[in-house]
Structure formats: structure tokens, C-alpha cells
Amino acid sequence: MIQLENITFQYASSKEPVFSQFDLDLQPGRIYGLMGPNGSGKSTLLYILMGLLHVQKGRIEVDGHDVSRRERRLLQNLYIVPEEFELPSMTLMEYVDTYRPFYPRFSREVLSQCLHEFELSESLHTNQLSMGQKKKVIMAFALACGTSYLLMDEPTNGLDVASKKQFRKVIAMNMTDERTIVIATHQVHDVEQMLDHVLILGSREAESESCPGNTLSASSLVMCDATVSRVTQLFSFTLTHAPLQDALYVERTAQGYACIAPRHSDDEETPLNIELLYNAVQNGKIKMNDDKLND
Fold it and tell me: Maximum CA pair distance of the chain?
């Protein structure tokens, strides 16, 4: 379990903190989709969770261990796939032999399985790969490390349609009840069907625009923190010819009106439209931070 309690983080070059009095709990056995506007702190949050950025205030613990101490037993259970990276010029097996000793639960079998699904050879050399192929390699290695916590920043950027399908398959094949995966992304439709839990960041400043005289800073807060099952239990996502009278949020589309409405007891469950939910949350039409909306 990851716990962030009352953290404050501010870059030295910034006038405002990215996070102020920020709280978040991440449970095992879930795939989290982390979304938010540009500058809301998605990537920053991942690096804070890794202990690569240090908060000015607050507490961050992973399974009861202080992340800021960066203890070996903790680091060998965390892995981050950044949005941008460079691989050293070497064969894949040289890369594996160099870095796998850091991860006691590393599995060659899982690596081979992921490479097979990604249609990559184990004999490849990193300097012969496209950026999309390099991303597949690092994701295959990350899953093979067997860490309980896997953080991924825009993992589907640079992947074609077929590769995105492969990505979803390898994640599903290697998800367990003990593993927590956090995917920070703008490409919401790439991960929509994978997610167990939705986290949407927004600005305190934006939230307070409807409250004259409010002096909250522009720091980020969690505007939605709920399981997908809870969202679809509470709301219906429909496409209609005319806006629903009880709709909480409506968007005009080429096919009609995309609506979010309260789900009644006799309504069939509808699939989550995560982009519609995101827009509704950012526009202040739906709030999902209170305890009754969270499992």
C-alpha cells in the first residue's frame, strides 16, 4: 500500500507548489489511471512516489517504509517507466544481465513472454530499435522485474494501434492481486478497458473559481478517486438523440449527445466513458472525493 499524507512539493523555479496538503492512498491489486491537465503534476507525482523527488512537507510510505530513505528493500520493489528515456547501446541480454540483479523476483520467463507478445527478438540490440520498440523493451523488462509497484508515464505514446493492443495484453497477463500499477496518461482510450480505478487531478484554483474571495493556490488536488465499478454503479454513460433531462453532464457529438446521468436501480450497467467522466470532473459537474463514492 502507498500512502501520501499532507505532502507539499514545490519546484525551486516555481512560484506555486505543485502539491499542497495533498493526500492519496493506493491499494494493492489495482490498475490506476492517473489523469489531469498539463501541469497538474502527474509525472511529478510518479517521481515523488519513487523517492526521486523529495517533498518539503508530509509523509510518503510504501508498505510502511519511508520512501525518502530509498532503502534497498524498498527500491527493489518499485519500478518506473518514464515517458522519455535512453537505453544504453548494448544487446538486450547484456542489459538484462546488468540490471536484473537489482530485482530479486526478476523472471526470464516473463521477459520472454512479453517480448513474444511484442513481437521482439531476445537477440535484439538497443541501437537498432525505433522509439516505439525501445518502449516495448523497457516495459517488458519492467514487468519481468516482478515489482509490487509499477509506475508508467504515458506508456502508449509512440506505439501504433497494434502495439497498444499488445501493451494491454501484457499488462493483463502479468497483473496480480499483490501488484499495483499506476498509469499516467492523456491517451485515455488506450487504457480505458484496463483500469480498476480512476484518479483525476485538477487545480485548487479552478475549483475555487465559483467561490469569490477564495485564496487557494493553484496547487493540484484529487478531484476523482474511485473504482471503475463504483463509477458505473452510480452513473450511466449513454449516447442519445437529445440531452437527458436528468443528465449531470452533456457533450454534443457528431452522433448525438453523450450524457452522464444518475443510474437508477432498474437501469442496466453501461461501460465507462472515461473521457466523458474526465471532462465532467474538470468542468465541476461531478465530484468524487467523498468517502461514499469510494470503495
Answer: 63
Span 12-22, pLDDT tens digits: 998 899 999 99
Amino acid at 95: Y
Residue 209 CA, chain-centre distance (Å), reads 27
Under 8 Å between Cβ of 73 and 105: no
Q: What are the start-end ranges of the E strands in the chain?
A: 2-9, 19-26, 31-35, 57-62, 65-66, 78-81, 149-153, 180-184, 197-203, 220-227, 235-240, 249-253, 256-262
Q: What is the pTM of this model?
A: 0.90
C-alpha cell at 94: 547484456
Task: Give the whole-angstrom CA distance, residue 177 versus residue 188.
Answer: 23
**Structure-block grid coordinates of residue 253:** 457529438
DSSP annotation of 232 reads: H
Exposure string of 38-63, with b = 16+ CB inside 10 Å and e = fewer, is eebbbbbbbbbbbbebebeebebebe
**Contact call for residues 96 and 165 (beta carbons, < 8 A):** no
CA–CA distance, 269 with 178 (Å, rounded to integer): 28
Sorted by sequence, the CB contacts under 8 Å of residue 153 that are 6+ apart come out as 42, 43, 46, 80, 81, 82, 83, 184
Convert the pLDDT of each residue in 156-197 to its tens digit.
Answer: 998 999 999 999 999 999 999 999 999 999 999 899 999 999
Pick from 236, 259, 227: nearest CA to 33: 227
